[in-house]
Amino acid sequence: MKRRLPIASLFLLAVACHGLGMHRGEETPAPRDVARSVDDARLRAAGADPTTWITHGGTYAEQRFSPLDQINAGNVSQLGLAWSYATGTARGLEATPLVVDGVIYATGSWSVVFALDARTGNELWRYDPEVPRETGRKACCDVVNRGVALYEGRVYVGTLDGRLLALDAASGKKVWEVQTTDPSRPYTITGAPRVVKGKVLIGNGGAELGVRGYLSAYDAKTGSLIWRFYTVPGDPSQPQESPALERAVPTWKGGEWWKVGGGGTVWDSMAYDPDLDLLYVGTGNGSPWSRVVRSPGGGDNLYLSSILALRPDSGDLVWYYQETPGDTWDFTATQHIVLADLAIGGQTRKVLLHAPKNGFFYVIDRESGKLLSAEKFAPVTWARRVDRKTGRPVEAPGVDYRKRPVVVKPSPYGAHNWQPMSYSPQTGLVYIPAQDIPSAFALDKHFRYRPGTWNTGTDFSVIHGFPRGIATGSLLAWDPVKQRARWRVPYTAPWNGGTLATAGNLVFQGTSDRRFVAYAADSGKKLWQTPVGTAILAPPVSYELDGQQYLTVLAGWGGAFALSGGDAVAALDPRAGGQVLTFKLGGNAEMPMPPPPPGPQPLAALPPAPKDRKLVARGEALFTQNCVVCHGYAAVGGGVLPDLRHATPEVHQSFEAIVLGGARQSQGMPSFAQFLTPEDVEAIHAFVIQRAYDEHAAMAAAEKKAKRR
Question: Which of the residues 461, 469, 510, 580 has the least number of beta carbons within 10 Å of its own beta carbon?
């Protein structure tokens, strides 16, 4: 095994003296000791110690590459489960686990944090921040969390309701907490914090409902706010918070975007270059989505859908590159950012690699922000190309949806979403969880700002679902220098997991169809796979203990497409609780497998079929506007939340009490009394009942057809 550990001898002496990383029989080192060893120097040198995984992307460069090669293309077939840990959750799991000297730190649904013994999976501690369950309505894309940050004996986590917490690494007890958002606005936090130079960096989400985006830096010791960078301007009649925002104001023309929020949330990606002392962040979509509503006079709307380079000490903007000027399709630039040094045009360039939602792969000079190249890595219909000289996309004709609905690729789910990609310096390839999902767009001609609910400025009623086969995914190996695909593994469904590349010529990825798979990094040949009982969305990590290489990944179905994809994801329904799965060569633990999913209620258990077709049609429109993002298009559940077509008699009897009265608020289903009337709920219920009868009719027709064969 390659053990490239060129760490300073003083650090090794400290390890020997204080027991950091020492193996004491089968005893796990005290979490306080091992986490305390994570300081600025160790974070900067994270790539020199492949035995750990101490920051979100493995290193500040976020390459998600492990130099370990004990598990390699020649022996990966011997990989087996070492242990599993049940998270006790039934919602999406998206966290990257952090691992340091025998301890794993990760998060589950509802921002719960847990520490595990990396050798056995035994729980060391668990902390529940007790996020109010009604907060789930503010989350566009499930009640997920992407992980923690470690620094000087503390574990940092952002919670769904907008708090930033510092926990003691030894006990999980809270040290401090701050509210990073305005609780009266629909902000959420799902992204993992980062620590740079003693500052905890955290963004937020919520642009679909209506917020103003920003990134905050807090003192890691005290929790005091050091700086905040707003990504879009506020009320133009008032002074702006920074010179960068003063320069942005003229790019917003007309409208009153600041009342809705403007958007531009920093809800996921960050990377840091210690040599240049630049922090790179990706910003999100506009709020509302539609620029016609948000900024009717046009304009680029800085700094939406952009990469920003900031000074970590002050939050000052050094440069920006806007990938989708005047975004009107929810093409966020918040997808995973990777830093690398590549030979381009006969010289080594410090570059930033990015594959955002909009379907173009960008190579950007990370010193200057200059675009070096951009090419389509997935099917794209909204733009023909990106102009090399101007750096701007050349929009395709016919994509303006102001007068009529149009079908666009990619969809708001993106050609690549939050699932992290990885980069191997050995192969020179980037491994992208790519996807191909079309979507229909139409302008909401009757838009009015409704605080607390979705405010996109688009009309969802033109989308009637995603039939099976129309949405697909792939694992894409992309050459960032030649800007072309090297190889691609097609999947029948999208929403597959993040990737990990290793020195063993391997790429690991979990899939939405409940597998964990290893491919040859150079060729894409499938070398190993195992069923895992539930979908894997999260990215795996690798580390070493006692001379043995391990892989750990979280498994748990959820997220935006899992909630709303309808028919496109119904067949993936796993109905399994969340798991932390750890693999090693020769592992022989039993894989936890779920029970079969429940079928529909018998016809006798359903209320009478509705006879008023107009009532059902009205219910469909209301359902699409208010319920789709959690319960799926056409009321087809994706396995995360209950499929309403299969609702029990008790649910039908209590339908109004649930929807208006908040009878299940403690389970994450809040009251909609602020937005719906009893007559509205009656119509929605009629639509749900009709969809149950539709399912039975379809099943009967399929059985009849099968008998004829």
Answer: 469
Residue 403 predicted with pLDDT over 80 = yes
Task: Determine contact, residues 264/229, Cβ cutoff 8 Å.
Answer: no
| Topology of the domain comprising 603-708 | Cytochrome Bc1 Complex; Chain D, domain 2 (1.10.760)
Range in 189-203, 261-275, 385-399, 617-631 with the lowest mean pLDDT = 617-631
Copy the structure tokens of residue 359: 């379907």
Angle at 179 between CA 176 and CA 181, to 5 degrees: 155
The alpha carbon dihedral of 273, 276, 278, 281 has a sign of negative
Query: Which tokens belong to 8?
Result: 């300073």
Question: Quick check: 402 pLDDT over 50?
Answer: yes
Tell me, what amino acid is at 351?
Answer: V
Q: Which residues pair with 116 in a beta bridge?
A: 104, 123
Q: Which of these is catalytic: 330, 436, 444, 522?
A: 330
Among 624, 603, 600, 604, CA closest to 687: 624
Dist CA 315 CA 302 (whole Å): 17
| pLDDT of 24 above 60 | no
Taking each helix axis from N to C end, the angle separating 613-626 and 678-708, rounded to the nearest 10 degrees, works out to 100
Beta-sheet strand order (sheet of 317-322): 270-273, 278-282, 306-310, 317-322
Task: Give Rg (Cα) of the chain.
Answer: 25
330: annotated active-site residue: yes
542-554 residues labelled b (16+ CB within 10 A) or e (exposed): bbbbeebbbbbbb
Provide the pLDDT for residue 512.
Answer: 94
Convert 670-698 to b/e letters by CB count within 10 Å (16 or more is b): bbbeeebeeebbbbbbbbbbbbbbebbee
Distances (CA, A) of 524 to 75, 185, 365, 481, 557: 16, 45, 29, 19, 25
Sign of the dihedral through C-alpha 299, 303, 308, 312: positive
Q: What is the mean pLDDT of the chain?
A: 92
Range list of β-strands (E), 11-162: 65-66, 79-86, 98-100, 103-107, 113-117, 123-127, 149-151, 154-158
Q: What residue spans in the chain does CATH classification 2.140.10.10 cover?
A: 65-585
CA distance to 76, 494, 567, per residue, from 561 (Å): 31, 8, 11
Is residue 662 within 8 A of residue 676, CB to CB? The reply is no
The span from the CA of 457 to the CA of 260, in Å, is 11
CA atoms within 13 A of residue 157's CA, in its CB half-sphere: 36
Q: What pLDDT digit, counting tens, does each position of 210-236 carry?
A: 999 999 999 999 999 999 999 999 999
Residue 605 banded pLDDT, cuts 50, 70, 90? confident
Nearest one of 692, 636, 682, 667 to 137, comparing CA atoms: 667
Q: What is the CATH number of domain 65-585?
A: 2.140.10.10
Backbone phi, then psi, for 274, in 5-degree steps? -65, -30
The two structure tokens encoding residue 67: 């130099």
Of 474, 314, 276, the closest CA to residue 379 belongs to 474
Band of the pLDDT at 463, cuts 50, 70, 90? confident
Q: Rounded to an integer, what is the distance from CA 4 to the centroid of its chain?
A: 31
Q: Given a cut of 70, is residue 17 above it in pLDDT? A: no
